[in-house]
From TrEMBL:
Top-level taxonomy: Bacteria, Bacillati, Bacillota, Clostridia, Thermoanaerobacterales
Organism annotation: Ammonifex degensii (strain DSM 10501 / KC4)
Protein name: Quinate 5-dehydrogenase
Length: 299
């Protein structure tokens, strides 16, 4: 049996373990949160190194992407470099392949439609999703300045996102990651904010921790397009009136694991390191596994 572990800067309350069979192989998949502690994450990574088949880095990016350029995140690189032997990834390879394909599927199936208003809470950590939404004709508000930096200025063009990223991301990348992303206990209790932007969007898309952190009291009729959710997250969205929850990764034992977990599984299947894996190999595995978004009607 292959073992895949996600080491996350997120809350340990979201930890989960599941066993699943993929392409004839058994996988033991687990997620271990370190409650925002970079030091604990590094220690755990060193402990796992060489003892599991692949590792995913959760709750953090190694690189942010905009306009075809990659911008390193210092804390993400620290985690990546702590692992010397086991293949390790942050999920970005699947964000550029699986999530792009997921958006195309939703438009093809009529779940989403051209002209629909979409609030994407951050484009630079999901540039594949961002590009696919624009290509399919959605009206997208990019919330990168709003949700990561607390600057309530919406962006409506990927060109603008890429232009600002050129100046901002080199600085953002050297900041402690907790300053720009909800980690640890910040992932637990929503604190409503930026309600006018949530109200504008018919679809609220992107990283669930940003969405949950600032979740407004009511979400009547909204589609939530995201990735990692738990049974509790689903209940919260239902309680607040969201119409539909769409997750881009498969649901395993009641929850969807992050892209970092699924990409680590892909590396274990391929027997390759992260830098060796190619997008076309990911797309072939997506096809063989028949991976499509999980769609759940909530209200």
């Amino acid at each position: 049996m292959k073992k895949v572990v996600s080491v996350s800067l997120g809350s340990s309350r979201r930890d989960h373990t599941a066993e699943v069979e993929l392409l004839g192989e058994r996988f033991l998949i687990s997620r271990k949160g370190t409650d925002g502690s970079l030091e604990r994450a590094i220690s755990l990574l060193k402990e796992l190194d060489g003892k599991v088949d692949a590792i995913g880095l959760g709750g953090i990016d190694v690189y942010l992407v905009a306009g075809g350029k990659k911008y390193p995140v210092r804390d993400g690189l620290k985690l990546l470099r702590a692992v010397k032997h086991t293949p390790v990834c942050d999920g970005s390879g699947l964000k550029h392949t699986l999530e792009r394909e997921a958006v195309k599927y939703l438009f093809r199936e009529g779940i989403m439609y051209p002209g629909q208003k979409v609030l994407l809470v951050s484009a630079v950590d999901r540039f594949g999703m961002a590009e696919a939404l624009v290509e399919e004709g959605a009206r997208v508000c990019f919330g990168d300045l709003i949700f990561a930096l607390g600057i309530p200025i919406p962006l409506y063009s990927l060109r603008t996102v890429a232009f600002l990223a050129h100046f901002i991301l080199p600085v953002v990348g050297i900041l402690p990651f907790q300053w720009i992303y909800p980690t640890g206990k910040k992932q637990e209790a929503p604190k409503p904010k930026y309600e006018r932007f949530f109200a504008w969007g018919e679809v609220i898309a992107g990283d669930f921790h940003y969405i949950r952190r600032y979740l407004p009291p009511r979400l009547e009729g909204k589609i939530i397009l995201t990735n990692t959710t738990t049974v509790e997250d689903e209940a919260l969205l239902r309680e607040r009136g969201a119409r539909m929850l769409v997750t881009t990764t498969p649901v395993i034992e009641g929850r969807s694991f992050g892209t970092n977990v699924l990409e680590a599984v892909f590396l274990a299947i391929l027997g390759k390191r992260w830098e060796e894996a190619r997008p076309e190999e990911y797309l072939e595995l997506i096809r063989r596994l028949n991976l499509t978004p999980t769609v759940r009607v909530l209200n």
